[in-house]
Amino acid sequence: MTEEKQKVVIIGGGAAGLTAAYYLQKEVSERHLPIEIQLIEASHRLGGKMQTVVRDGFTIERGPDSFLARKTSMIRLAKEVGMDQQLVHNSTGKSYVLVNEKLYSMPGGSIMGIPTEVGPFITTNLFSIPGKIRAAADFILPRSESGKDQSLGGFFRRRLGDEVVENLIEPLLSGIYAGDIDQMSLMSTFPQFYEVEQKYRSLIIGMKKTKPSKPSKSAEPIVKDKTKGAFLTFKTGLQSFAAAIEAKLDSQMILKGHKVEKITKVNHKYEIYLNNGELIEADSIIAATPHKATQAMFSDYHFFDPFKQVPSTSVATVALAFPKEALKNDIDGTGFVVSRRSDYSITACTWTHKKWVHSTPAGKVLLRCYVGRAGDETIVDLSDDQISKIVLDDLKKTMDITVNPDFTVISRWKNAMPQYTVGHKQRLATILDQMKVELPGVFLAGASYGGVGVPDCIDQGEAAVRNVLTYLNYSNE
Question: What is the distance between the alpha carbons of residues 424 and 152, in angstroms, rounded to a whole number?
């Protein structure tokens, strides 16, 4: 007698959903599990923010452009789908922060803006003498209250002062989340800073002690590639990575262009209502969807209501292609971030042709700028021509660009950057506890929950698969 199959439905085809589909399919295939898988995606493509434009020899990322090489889950998945040979490290170079119309080199030895070497911090002109003296108070200030969440901005302002925060830490950290660091949760974004402070009291001393030690001269290789950076991407673009994962999936399991309207629990199963009127039954669900979409799908379950209040920021990336001779003042470096104290609309600029050499044909230049952040999102709604003019005017202030770009690629991400505001970790824990009681077998994964980077989403997709198998009693086979 054939064993009746249990059905697992994965909702959302971004990085988390794709990962869950791949690894669950692999488990089912290798272990011959009686599980049917369905992946439902509201749009007509998979990959979420992993989108790439290939044009005139340029490889241009619309969303994320890379990931930290130390986050190995993405490298492992790349090997699984045959993409590891396409991985390439970024080229290193100077990076800058723009404050009051001037570019300053990032102080040497700083980690996410936190100084770990006294010399570069003392000699930089990025901070005033009073600002440096205030930062030195970190050596004597007491620890934060144990276990209590607080804003990133509040934490760093207390330890290092407003000037260091506004001129260096804020431009670096807010760029990752496109958020307001005075609202963002320390415990949900960078808990390692809190842990260092708790252990060493001084953040500066703690970061210095936990900084990876340099190898001794005798241990250094004769030839050392100092141009290899800490980030990786794919020569063919991140979209090709998403496509490679999709190619490994059984096409029969994928349902694109269908939106989930509502999910209800009926006895021990779940009824999933689609926007075309179709009803799908599931034994277990992985909701790899943004938090507001998740709340809307489970609107009958009011413990999801806190997700309504979680903000999401709108941003846009603006890529501009030029002939090399267009840049009369080509700065030595790979890019800069912009302090809020500067009269600029862009929040950062990457000299992509230098950071990712493979992305740009010989004799060409590719600049990738970012606009939009918490409290300053209206620019994202402007027309392409308006955004292009604003960005180009900003760039001309620092780079003396003499001509218009050959072409521009603008990518808008409306309400796409979830904000981990203070209390995020506890809010999420409360919701997850309620789900175990009222919605057993339903699991969350994605940027709204446990990390916004692509590797973070991959980690969550893998964890969701383990949770599903445990719930269906297949974890120990």
Answer: 13
The one-letter code for the residue type at 62 is R
> Pairing mode, if any, of strands 254-256 and 279-282?
unpaired
Amino acid at 103: L
Q: pLDDT tens digits, residue range 328-375?
A: 777 788 899 998 878 889 999 999 999 999 999 999 999 999 998 877
pTM of the predicted model, to two decimals?
A: 0.92
Please state, in angstroms and rounded to a whole number, the distance separating the CA atoms of residues 438 and 305: 15
Closest CA to 232 of 14, 73, 108: 73
Q: Are 321 and 404 in contact (CB under 8 A)?
A: no
**CA atoms lying within 13 Å on the CB side of residue 442:** 28
**The two structure tokens encoding residue 65:** 């452009």
Give the C-alpha separation, 475 to 214, whole Å. Answer: 42
User: Between 229 and 160, whose confidence is greater?
Assistant: 160
CB-based contact 296:263 (threshold 8 Å): no
Instruction: Let me know the angle formed at the C-alpha of 143 by 142 and 144, rounded to the nearest 5 degrees.
Output: 125
